[in-house]
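Why should sequence recovery work at all? Because a backbone constrains its sequence more than one might expect. Tight turns favour small or flexible residues, buried strands favour hydrophobic ones, and helices have their own preferences. The token representation captures these environments compactly. In the example below, the structure is given first.
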């Protein structure tokens, strides 16, 4: 998936400032389960870097990722020392990638037929 590839490329970046995303220790455990796209539509330019991290963690959770929660320890995390504009750029990139992934997932599940079967009575 493009999101996982983006995260891997950011993590492998030579510059420690650009590799701050590795602090999340992201692991994808499940497919996308987003039902509310509100977090995808919030403009990061209106948020502090810490709020951007919280927003992104919400998206990660809904998208089936396991991660290290950086928000409670924000001031100790390397990410807190990264240029705020870089944090916002990464968050915007992730929002776009996750939005595309969300739309693709909707396309996949829209073709799935569901049927409710009554419970067997004894």
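From this structural description, the recovered sequence reads:
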């Amino acid at each position: 998936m493009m999101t996982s590839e983006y995260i891997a490329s950011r993590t492998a970046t030579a510059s420690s400032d650009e590799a701050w995303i590795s602090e999340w220790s992201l692991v994808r455990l499940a497919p996308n389960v987003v039902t509310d796209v509100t977090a995808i539509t919030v403009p990061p330019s209106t948020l502090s870097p810490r709020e951007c991290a919280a927003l992104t963690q919400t998206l990660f959770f809904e998208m089936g990722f396991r991660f290290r929660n950086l928000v409670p320890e924000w001031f100790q995390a390397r990410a807190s020392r990264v240029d705020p504009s870089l944090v916002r750029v990464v968050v915007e990139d992730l929002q776009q990638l996750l939005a595309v992934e969300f739309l693709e997932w909707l396309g996949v599940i829209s073709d799935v037929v569901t049927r409710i079967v009554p419970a067997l009575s004894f």
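A few observations help interpret the result. The longest helix spans residues 84-110.
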